[in-house]
Design brief:
This protein is mainly beta. The protein is built from no helices and 8 strands. The radius of gyration is 18 Å and the shape is elongated.
Length: 71
Amino acid sequence: YQIGQASDASTYPYIEKVYPFRYAKCSVKANNVKKIINEPSNTEIDFETDGEYVKFVIDEIKYLAMVRIVF
């Protein structure tokens, strides 16, 4: 939980809960891909090629996701 700021004595502070997004299916047009890495955890993501596209799944996104595609 992340506690917000109350601007007035009569207002209540809000609490923001982050719900992760799971199993995001991604498809990128790319050839000769050697590996795909999830950053900043530096973990390798399994992928498959389908013609000119490479397909992979990001297991969990909390705030943002960044992947590195190595050719």
